[in-house]
Amino acid sequence: MAGNSFGQLFRITTCGESHGGALGVIIDGCPPGLKITEEDIQHELDRRKPGQSAITSPRKESDVIHILSGVFEGETTGTPILLLAYNADMRPQDYEELKKVYRPSHADFTYLMKYGRRDFRGSGRASARETLARVAAGAIAKKFLKEQLGIEILSYVEQVGHLRTSMDYQQVIPADIELNIVRCPDQDMAKKMIALIESVKQEGDSIGGVIKGVARRVPVGLGEPVFDKLSADLGKAMLSINAVKGFEIGSGFEGVSLRGSEHNDAFIMEEGNIKMQTNRSGGVLGGISTGEDIYFRVAFKPVATISKQQQTVDVTHKVITLEATGRHDPCVLPRAVPIVDAMTALVIMDHYLRHAAHKSSP
């Protein structure tokens, strides 16, 4: 299986399965001298792990991270970093009934058609548990960007089903996101979202929504046109996350209803610096960062595995009725917030190093 690596100068390769022995990631290209501890990484993993609230998967995994290389005396050495987290609460027997069944809207069918075999224990590499490795790597990138460049990266749940907060992303602070279990900074709307997810869970169903991602104080000049635009790499990063079905940056699809005279971001002078009066471009022009906030939206579909009866077929092509069992999130959004954070950090970190390499070349 190819396609398990991401990035160019700051490059990660992930490994591991949902019910295998462990999840791991090798990070190549991290600059030396960054102070990093397992606790720094664990904080982000605790935001992603299952079993953290009544509206997430009940699987009990502490997701304890181990730094096995690339860090000496509390600082990165510049050599490859190996991070590993062992699986503990494995129940492959929960998936025995799915061994020969194609779950609707799941990767069971495509994996078997492509490889001639599949890991039916929680979907193997197709499981969102793979994102543990991304979050671990992203925690290091996020820390570097914050400490070395002052870049702040945050994501939050903007919409669940038909419920959407109108809160301005510019007013959101990280502390507000963590005040409730759905990770929506609008506390009143969060209560409604939680009630909706709980109702859907009781029905044996699932629900999707939208996460908004924000990166503040990104310097001008990041991005490599033509094919490696910053916006294009952010789109690829987000669309690589399990259950993501859509990505838009800046005004996105809503921008099509505006005229050019309405949509254009006028340049202005502010304290001797060139700024933009508006930011409908989402902080990127021509695939290169403008210095304004980067903001985007990521659409997540409802979780495919539900306990409601559904019609499907098995590997013998027999039509059957399925009521899936196992431990699944009724809504992936609360646990996906740190995943969006991580993928944002990985993209910006990689492009920062690429930009720095250009500046240092003769």
Report helical residue fraction: 25-40%
Give, in order, the helices and strands: EEEHEEEEHHEEHHEHEHEEEEEEEH
Strand order of the largest sheet: 1-2-3-7-4
Poorly predicted ranges: none
Biggest sheet features = 5 strands, antiparallel
Count the strands? 18
Assess the beta-strand content as a share of residues: 15-25%
Supply the helix-strand structural class. Answer: alpha+beta
Shape assignment = globular
Mean pLDDT: 93
Offer a few descriptive terms:
362 residues; alpha+beta; five-stranded antiparallel sheet; 28% helix
Characterization of this structure:
- The protein has 362 residues and is of the alpha+beta class.
- The protein has 8 helices and 18 strands.
- It has helices spanning 38-48, 108-115, 131-149, 174-177, 187-202, 230-239, 260-263, 333-360; strands at 5-6, 11-16, 22-28, 65-69, 71-72, 75-76, 81-86, 152-160, 163-164, 209-216, 244-249, 267-270, 273-276, 284-285, 288-289, 294-300, 310-313, 319-322.
- It has a 5-stranded antiparallel sheet with strand order 1-2-3-7-4, with helices on one face. Strands 9-8-10-16-11 form a 5-stranded antiparallel sheet.
- β17 and β18 (319-322) form a beta hairpin.
- The mean pLDDT is 93.
